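Handoff note, outgoing to incoming analyst
You'll be picking up this chain. Sequence as last confirmed:
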Amino acid sequence: MIRIMIADDQPIVRRGLHTVLEAEKDFQIVGEASNAPEAVQLAASLRPDVVLMDIRMPPADSINAVREIREQGWGKVIMLTTFDTEENVVRALKAGASGFLLKDVEISELANAIRQVMNGQFAIQPELVATYLPALMGASHEDILTAREREILQLVAVGRTNAQIGDVLFVSESTIKNHLTNIFAKLKVHNRTEAIDKARQLHLLE
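Most recent structure output, in case you need it:
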């Protein structure tokens, strides 16, 4: 069962998403938030598998919320919005979002995107890739991993175990395992040794 949290400032959007997604046998809606700070608090409490988040929820946009949720390992994030500017797409992905979709997406495509993200893949609406590919390709290698993921990989590289890394960063061992799963998926590797080698090739380690 994939546990999903919805973050959108419009109640009608939250209700609509809740209804259509819960019709999927492998989805469970575990919470709803109406703004970015509330989304961070709920993600910390509920630890959903996937957060569907609008990029603009007054009083602020959601980029910092995405970054905090990802760096703390509180769930993967898919942006679901009407604001498809190049800046929004690139900023969201750099902050750690695993997907970027528009609200006119078909329900079947949204459901498939959620499953893709759960399998460690990225889910970006095809027309957005076609439009913004040059900007996405221009992102530096450092943008592949969040600051917290690079910090964890640095500790892995010096031989720390998951438990030791958790002690250093004041988080649980399971949180470290979640981060490593995300790191492996982003670097397209299968284990710690391969991750360290790939990170060195990309100059992600100090």
